[in-house]
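pls design
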C-alpha cells in the first residue's frame, strides 16, 4: 500500500477509533429534549444529509493524489445524520468511502458530539469528542440546515445540505 493511500485510510479510521475509545465520555448520550432553550430553539431536531458540495449522495467531498503511485483517491460522503437537542448539544454520525476509480479502498464511520451555539444567522458547532473539530452552519427557511465542514479531514471545507426529519 502506498504512503498517500495509507495516510488517507488512517485519516478516515482515526475518527472511528477515537469515537469508539470512550463510550462514557461526557456528552456521550445526547438526550432527546423537546423544550427549547434560548439560542437554539429552531435548530432543535434530527437532520439527514440530502447532498454535499451541490451533489446528490453519494457525494464527492475530497480528491487527492497518492504521491507514490499517482492514483487519484476520491472521498465520498455516503450518509450523515445530525441531531440537535434543546440543551445546546449535537451528535453527528456519517459514513465515508475512499475510492480509486470505482473501487472502494476504505470505509469509515464519523462519530462526533459536542456543543452548539448560535448567533443571529450562524450556528457554531464545537466538538467535545474529537480534538480540533469545529464547524459552522446556518438554518434555512425551509427548515433544513447547511453546514460547512471538513468531514474528510483533508483541509477541504465542503457545504453539506441537511433536511429536517423532526
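designed seq:
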Amino acid at each position: 500500500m502506498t504512503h498517500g493511500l495509507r495516510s488517507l485510510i488512517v485519516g478516515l479510521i482515526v475518527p472511528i477509533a477515537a469515537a469508539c475509545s470512550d463510550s462514557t465520555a461526557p456528552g456521550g448520550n445526547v438526550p432527546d429534549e423537546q423544550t427549547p432553550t434560548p439560542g437554539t430553539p429552531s435548530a432543535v431536531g434530527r437532520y439527514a444529509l440530502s447532498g454535499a458540495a451541490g451533489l446528490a449522495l453519494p457525494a464527492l467531498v475530497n480528491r487527492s493524489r497518492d504521491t507514490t503511485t499517482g492514483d487519484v483517491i476520491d472521498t465520498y460522503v455516503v450518509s450523515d445524520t445530525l441531531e440537535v437537542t434543546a440543551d445546546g448539544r449535537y451528535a453527528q454520525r456519517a459514513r465515508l468511502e475512499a475510492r480509486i476509480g470505482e473501487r472502494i479502498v476504505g470505509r469509515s464511520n464519523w462519530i462526533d458530539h459536542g456543543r452548539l451555539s448560535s448567533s443571529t444567522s450562524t450556528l457554531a458547532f464545537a466538538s467535545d469528542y474529537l480534538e480540533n473539530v469545529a464547524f459552522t452552519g446556518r438554518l434555512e427557511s425551509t427548515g433544513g440546515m447547511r453546514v460547512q465542514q471538513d468531514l474528510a479531514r483533508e483541509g477541504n471545507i465542503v457545504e453539506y445540505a441537511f433536511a429536517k426529519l423532526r
